[in-house]
Amino acid sequence: MDRLQAMQIFTRVAEAGSFVRAAETLSLPSSTVTSTIKNLEKYLQVRLLNRTTRRVSLTPEGVQYLAQCRDILSLIEHAESSLTDSVKRPQGRLRVDMPAGIAHFIVMPNLQDFYRRYPDIYLMTGVSDRQVDLVQEGVDCVIRTGELTNSTLVARPLGRFRWVTCASPDYLREYGVPQSPDELSRHQAIHYFSGQTRRADELRFQQGSALRYVSVNGQTAVNETGLYIKMCLEGYGLAQLAENVIAEHLAQGTLVEIMADWQPPPVPVTLLYPHQRFLSPAVRAFADWIDELI
Question: Which helix (H) or strand (E) segment is 252 a member of?
Fold first, then answer.
């Protein structure tokens, strides 16, 4: 039995919670994964996993062994990478999850620069605002906006987005240009809903230390940034967006910033990834690149 391979397979099964899912991510037959775990348990003379029809879970001995396997595999990866040019030339599959606005309007316009720097990285970009389980879903790192809830992940701050309240010129010609939140009762907003606790019909404003949440009437709500921008461009109402995301529209005049004295509070942007003794070269390369970009 190849004990190193057995450790790798056991670790993937434990993280995926499924023999079938582990086999898919390892590109191995399910029978190979199952027989390897059985042989490993026989060799160690201890049960590592509890099996049910739907899921596998770790025994107390399995929890202890998993932690040790992770340390061993991490040390091996570090030893190998230090003897190659992988640090200077990162390679391999890298799966990153990020909000749609960052993907479409920040990452995509600069993606060729990333590939010029790192031609050997196979980048898998997931677009989502939801909270993903990085281990269960095989995600290497995620970009998130907003204040973070308690997390066991490593958080690397990337900066803060300046947000603006904006509308199309056609909308402003029809409804007028509001000068303060007190005038918004006569206006329409495009509502944005997500998994956050904030109400979809609220716009946020800050002036000095004063923070206000204002409910604004509207006819529609969306949960995707591209559609949110499109509806604002077509005059459906006011919207609040990151300046980085709509910089081109603001420069062209297709969107107009309003109430500059009452800006929405800035929003932090963070890169998150699991705790690892040694961060993989591909994750480090992406982290440095997106940090520079944002």
Answer: helix 247-252
